[in-house]
Design a protein that fits this description.
alpha/beta, Rossmann fold, 2 domains, eight-stranded mixed beta sheet, six-stranded parallel beta sheet, 14 helices
């Protein structure tokens, strides 16, 4: 069977969980001999990526970066044309199941239905009620979420998530971890690294404010996404981070990374700090763990469950400097550091692409 993933903002190297999750699911499906196609409205997307076909949705007229309100209005205005274009595409690709990746950005709020095609809503985040309520009213055959955190958040918001299924995000690649001797070298003198997109909820600016410079380099890679909560929001975060870094010696601000660049960059870090104040899954943490790099993060969302003994979890009620202190204490303890490094790698094996693809296939079939 062919599974279609619909996500308006999808293109390679977007620094965001939904986009990365989609291609990892598609690659995993390839590994178990299932077909997939990605449908996007972004004109920058190529016709194929990692041997996965990419289809351009031309009936949705938006420009990127795009904010939520603009996309919602454009989607509603073009709903009939979108449905017709998707129907033609699905017939040509012989699609038997379609995953609308998010109630808004995955077009779940209009969720066209077609005879013989199973519809699945992916709720990576709960988002705006106006979108999720509209999507659920379309009566999808299944609802999936990347973690139990999303199910809990939905229940708190008044949704009945008891029938939803958890299908976690997957690794895009399965890299080789660094050998123990090199990992010890990194513990002693390697850089502390942070990787995030330019969203205020990622907590990077707050992390840089009370910074206690460690006796090693600190590198922060920040990337633009084709979406933002409000127009100009990403640029505001960028300016704030640049100003803070300019006042702090030993800290380097870097541009975002391509997806294939992420694993080796995280592998050469002594510790990866994830300063997010909300995280429904935690892909950066997972990718760091897969290369045996311990992670330091707040106890928010799915991060405690994901990281476990593969790093250090601190209270979200504490100030950001608690993340720096936790990293410093871990780096000063070679025994606990080595144990966290090993645990991080072995925990990440649960998220290998083929394993997760089998979970997804059970839900969409």
């Amino acid at each position: 069977m062919t599974i279609a993933f619909v996500l308006a903002s999808w293109r390679p190297d977007v620094p965001a969980g939904m986009e990365r999750a989609v291609i990892a699911h598609a690659v995993g499906l390839q590994q178990i001999n299932a077909e997939s196609v990605i449908v996007t409205a972004d004109p920058a997307a190529p016709p194929t990526y990692r041997n996965v076909p990419i289809e351009r949705l031309r009936s949705l007229d938006v420009q990127f970066p795009c904010d939520d309100a603009t996309l919602r209005a454009a989607t509603d205005a073009s709903a009939p044309a979108i449905g017709e274009e998707l129907a033609r595409l699905f017939r040509r690709r012989q699609v038997r199941a379609v995953v609308y990746v998010d109630a808004l950005w995955g077009l779940g709020r209009i969720m066209p239905t077609h005879p013989g095609i199973r519809t699945v809503l992916a709720a990576h985040v709960i988002g705006h009620d106006v979108d999720l309520q509209a999507a659920l009213a379309r009566r999808p055959d299944a609802v999936i979420a990347p973690s139990a955190t999303v199910l809990t958040e939905a229940a708190v918001r008044g949704y009945d998530s008891s029938s939803w299924s958890v299908v976690p995000n997957a690794l895009l690649t399965v890299p080789e971890p660094r050998p123990g001797s090199y990992r010890e070298h990194l513990r002693a003198s390697g850089p502390v690294r942070v990787l995030a997109r330019l969203g205020p909820e990622k907590g990077v600016a707050e992390l840089l404010e009370p910074i206690n410079v460690l006796d090693r380099p600190i590198e922060v890679a920040l990337a633009d996404a084709p979406f933002e909560l409000a127009a100009g929001g990403q640029e505001q975060v960028r300016r704030r981070c640049r100003a803070l870094v300019a006042e702090t010696p030993g800290v380097t601000l870097l541009p975002g990374l391509a997806w294939h660049e992420v694993p080796p960059w995280l592998a050469d870090a002594s510790v990866v700090i994830v300063p997010s104040r909300a995280e429904t899954f935690g892909l950066v943490a997972l990718e760091a763990m897969a290369v045996s790099t311990p992670v330091v993060a707040y106890d928010v969302g799915n991060l405690p469950h994901l990281i476990g003994d593969g790093g250090v979890i601190v209270s979200h009620r504490s100030r950001p400097d608690s993340l720096w202190r936790a990293a410093q204490h871990l780096l000063a303890d070679p025994i606990n550091y080595a144990a966290a490094s090993r645990a991080a790698y072995y925990r990440s094996r649960d998220y290998w692409p083929a394993l997760v693809a089998n979970q997804l296939l059970k839900v969409v079939s």
